[in-house]
User: Fold these one by one.
Assistant:
Number 1:
Amino acid sequence: MTTNIQETSDSQEETDEAEVTGQNSVENKLADPEIQAKIQKAKAKIATEAAKAEENKVVKLLEKNSLGMTLPEMAGGIRKQKRIKQLRPVLAEAIKKGIVMPVSQRSGHTVYKLVRNLNR
């Protein structure tokens, strides 16, 4: 019976030491190889999303013009209604991802700029 009591008290001391030394701390969890693999996968996913964003037609057009463009300017003119209708959902997707932002208005149309070009 006395051995059982000593074993339980030893295990309690070990858990107390673990709490004091911080074995369950964030740094130790980040050092875990499984968590490192998850972090790498997340970074790779973000990189692929950025690559997809560069494939976006609106982003390509706005990269060429740092001053920003209106939707009719992106389409090539006000009369190109079909092209405007095609670009509208692409522009909405870019706005949702946070790549493009509406900035101001020019001749009654909203001007869109890339977020990385907002300071210019």
Number 2:
Amino acid sequence: MDVKKKREQLLKAAENAINELIKVMDKKMDLQEVDPEKVKISASAYRLAMEDAMAMMAKVEELESMDKEDTKKKQEFFGVEGRAK
């Protein structure tokens, strides 16, 4: 299994999920036409969608920084001379 390829697929899927959560949060509701109980449920769903999106964004940023660190470590390696004691 190619871990790097799977990580990239996971990041793309997470970005798509975040975009879908944003679409859910952008929907407008008319408070005059909706039952108060439905407004309460919708508000709870919006809050949950926001929390999920923020958590996913944090994880995506963490994974992307891991990729950058991996690339940086690969570029910094010049040999074993510095490690031999």
